[in-house]
Design goal:
The protein is an alpha/beta fold and about 260 residues long. It contains 7 helices and 9 strands. The chain is about 40% helix and about 15% strand. The chain has a 7-stranded parallel β-sheet, with helices on both faces. Strands 7-8 form a two-stranded parallel sheet. The mean pLDDT is about 95. Bound molecules: NADP nicotinamide-adenine-dinucleotide phosphate (NAP).
Length: about 260
Amino acid sequence: MSRLQNKTALVTGASRGIGRGIALRLAQDGAVVAVNYSNNEGAAKETVALVEEAGGRAFTVRARLGTPGAVEQLLEGVAAGLVERTGSSRLDILVNNAAATGFTGAGPSAVTEDIIDNCYTVNAKAPFFLIQKALELIPDGGRIVNVSSGVTHSAFPIQIAYAMSKGALEQITLHMAPVLAPRNITINTVAPGITDNGDPVFQDPEALEQMSALSVFNRVGEVSEVADIVAFAASDDARWVTGSFIDATGGTLLG
Ligand code: NAP
């Protein structure tokens, strides 16, 4: 049952939502997990407490991705936390999950340069440089998973800035795969559809019905369902999958 025994992982944006679910699942599989967060220290500590209650190991690392020096700050914190717990700074699994949504509630005419800059900086630029610099810690056979969104494969104009930046993230997956292959490091995109991340909108029956109708299963996803797919991509079982787009939308993209 411990398919990630003796492995280590970093999950960005793991204080809440899907990132928390991924941290819990990777820790359940045996990995020591670095739980990155931006502001919400209490929630990040709660993720660690949940991991520990389930018998796993995790620690928090604060870094607001997209701000100057954040990638270096994050990797220093991760390396220090791993050395303390495992005696080594080796990082087997990197999950780029944190994101800016850039949701405007309006069509493309309401998108500002600031929204575009924020989306690209957090959703594409930060993961790119995190991968580039984390490669010093990632051993041969490592795993990288980029969490994108089904919105890159289905028109959703009110999220155009966010979708553009997630498209850029998916290009990192594609173009880095052959570069990483000689070291047997895989890199894949996992794209969730609408997933209950604990936001109050999921308590609104009318909104929930509309969101549910997007999936062929007529419901929204659970964070554990996305986390299970990320855990597969992070496991040895997925060693023959790289550069790929893994649809975790519950059939939302079937049309
Ligand atoms: P969420 O519940 O809003 O949680 C966001 C997480 O990211 C929090 O841990 C937050 O930390 C962290 N974060 C935000 N900005 C950050 C930054 N600049 N640097 C570091 N951490 C940052 O998000 P979610 O809905 O679970 O989404 C997780 C991933 O799935 C994202 O990539 C998102 O695009 C993707 N996704 C989600 C859905 C969905 O329906 N939920 C659908 C498709 C794709 P703090 O707690 O400190 O703020």
